[in-house]
């Protein structure tokens, strides 16, 4: 099977997230969307890690600070799942922190609490990679 780059993966993930949203609609807990998206991604043959611990390295020491990536797809695409009234700067900052800590290039911040999922998806690029 061909290895997909971050952009190809993000397209596939967005398509599956839209399927989940069409099925469930808005208004559920983040955990419900996360579980359903995890299921759809693994069913499609992708390698997905759920609640992936992300240590902070400070002065050459790895520290467990409780950071966890909701979903990490193929060890390169960060997925942060939300179910909130509106995405705000703290959600963007959280996703960017995961990109920086893990030295990942691309992340998707997906807010399932929207009428149309398309309006709840933000692509976040790590400019420091």
How far is the N terminus from the C terminus? 26 Å
Strand arrangement across the biggest beta sheet: 1-4-5-6-7
Number of strands: 7
Q: Estimate the strand proportion.
A: 25-35%
Computed CA radius of gyration, to the nearest angstrom: 14 Å
Helix content: 25-40%
Order of helices and strands: HHEEEEEHEE
Number of domains: 1
Largest sheet: 5 strands, mixed
Number of helices: 3
Coarse structural class = alpha+beta
What is the mean predicted local confidence, pLDDT? 93
Low-confidence stretches: none
Shape: globular
Structural account:
The chain is an alpha+beta fold. The protein has one domain (6-125). It contains 3 helices and 7 strands; from the N terminus they run H-H-E-E-E-E-E-H-E-E. Strand 2 (56-58) and strand 3 (61-63) form a beta hairpin. Helix 1 (6-24) packs across helix 2 (30-43). The longest helix has 19 residues, at 6-24. It is globular and about 45 Å long. It starts with 5 loop residues before the first helix and ends with a strand. The mean pLDDT is 93.
Task: Produce the secondary structure layout.
Layout: H1 6-24, H2 30-43, E1 48-53, E2 56-58, E3 61-63, E4 68-73, E5 77-82, H3 89-102, E6 106-111, E7 121-125
Parallel strand pairs: 5-6
Antiparallel strand pairs: 1-4, 2-3, 4-5, 6-7
Helix pairs in contact: 1-2
């Amino acid at each position: 099977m061909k290895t997909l780059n971050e952009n190809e993966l993000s397209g596939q993930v967005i398509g599956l997230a839209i399927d989940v949203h069409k099925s469930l609609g808005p208004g559920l807990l983040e955990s419900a969307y996360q579980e359903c998206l995890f299921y759809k991604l693994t069913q499609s043959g992708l390698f997905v890690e759920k609640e992936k611990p992300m240590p902070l390295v400070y002065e050459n020491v790895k520290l467990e600070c409780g950071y966890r990536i909701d979903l990490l797809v193929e060890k390169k695409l960060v997925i942060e799942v939300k179910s909130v009234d509106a995405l705000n700067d703290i959600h963007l900052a959280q996703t960017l922190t995961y990109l920086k800590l893990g030295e990942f290039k691309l992340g998707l911040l997906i807010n399932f609490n929207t009428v149309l999922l398309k309006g709840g998806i933000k692509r976040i690029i790590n400019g420091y990679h």
